Fold:
Amino acid sequence: MNTILITGATSGLGLELAKLYKSEKLVLIGRKSLSELDASIFNLDNYCQADLSQDGFIESILDFLNKRDINKLDLIIQNAAIGYFGNLNQSNIDALLKTNLYAPIEISHALLAKLSQAGKIVFINSISANFPAPEYSVYAATKAALAAFARNIALEERKKIQTIYLGAVNTGMHQKSGVPVDRFKIENFPSASKTAQQVQKAINKNQKESTIGFLNKLSRKAGKYGLLDILNKKPVNSKKRVCAITGAASGIGKALVNEYLAKGFQIIAIDRDSLALAELVKNEPVKIKSLVSDLASDNDLEKILASLYNIDIFIHSARISAVGRFIETDLEKQKTVLNINLRAVLILTKALLAEQKISKGGSLVFVSSLSHQASYPGAAVYAASKDGISSFARSLRKSLKDIHVLTVYPGPTKTPHAAKYSPENSNENKRMPPEILAKKIFNSVKRQKSSLVPSFMLQVFARAGTYFPYFTEQLMLKTLYKKIEKQNSEASSQ
Ligand SMILES: NC(=O)c1ccc[n+]([C@@H]2O[C@H](COP(=O)([O-])OP(=O)(O)OC[C@H]3O[C@@H](n4cnc5c(N)ncnc54)[C@H](OP(=O)(O)O)[C@@H]3O)[C@@H](O)[C@H]2O)c1
Structure:
């Protein structure tokens, strides 16, 4: 008998999966109390009440497993999720991030080591991870980020990770999310029980990725290859004067400060490094205003928002990383990567738009990463954060009529960040100087481009990663991941 853990087992697809696997030993996770649930399925032995959006949920799960002497798991189905429907203002960013992204990452971190030899984690995902989704942009961003996380740890933990993509299913999720039921005819979607059977078949087939349903497969491919973005309209281009940049004290951010200064802009430079910011302001005290703030702090996010108005260009350039084999890295560090690279971007953008702080005809710029196309084993959470913002930017591009949105996919860039996180023997001189990248970003904003892959070679690599991911992934494993692993194991043996 196999031991199978299912999250979000109390309704929808999760409940149907619990029924399908009822002859196995089950660990069913849900936020409801046991007394609310069907006693023919849920009991004290198989049901663990844990709200995945709350701190400490993982301790409840581990405690449950310990008390029942469950040391090995054969299958973990990470299914729980929440959605929302409407404009960005209606999204609860923290609840969405915690349930749909942070929790599955935390569960993977805690339970990967408990998988039996042939055991695996299955992530239930949505084809919206590959779509622009103007009416549920944060949900799609969490799913895109989760897909990137899974894709990258699948490279680190061979055959232990599978992602299953679903199209619309007739479950309670839509009503819970505020979807106007009459507009979508939810009753015509495939049923949860039929979809659960297809999911079970896909689990047995054991491919790294599967999509349920032929049309969903086609739509996902169309989304992945960018066919759903071709009708994006450009907003009116207006004269721009004020540019706010996060991560302004170093690397690409600092190069952007200098580029925009040289072009006559007023700059709002945002960074946590007060000394480096003071150095920037010293040279241009009139043209640069500095905001010393840590994007991981809610107080500082509020402080930033209170100080901003009439911004013509807002560039999200700040980022941090944490490299190494995912299960060996510190989870708190990985959460900080998500907080700075993804959560802060979502929260700032939502508030800037709601409070109309970006001028009409202005630009929002998201500095993502070539990991979006080429994968980044050894930095699965970093890659997740970058796919999260790419997806979010893509949805905004569809929904914002008056604001231009650019996503930048830098490859190796010669910055202090890269020097800190890349393997020791990687060739510094092959990296793109940040000053060149900053010029390309400036020109792309001016021409209102929607994406920038900043060199011909990187464009070739990005295309290869999109259409033939196996080759770029093997290359990334060889040129990056193996070196990172070697470096980390040498460091830990010293
Ligand atoms: N339905 C679709 O059209 C569709 C399409 C594509 C992908 N998906 C994906 O399919 C999966 C299942 O969705 P579904 O349609 O079955 O939705 P659902 O009926 O709403 O079920 C989601 C499950 O997750 C649980 N859950 C939500 N927040 C939780 C939390 N904080 N802690 C613990 N459990 C929590 C829910 O608990 P409660 O019972 O307490 O609400 C429920 O059991 C999700 O990953 C979803 O993204 C669904």
Observations:
- Residues 169 and 286 are 56 Å apart (CA to CA).
- The chain has two domains: 3-229, 242-493.
- The chain has 18 helices and 14 strands.
- The chain has a mean pLDDT of 92.
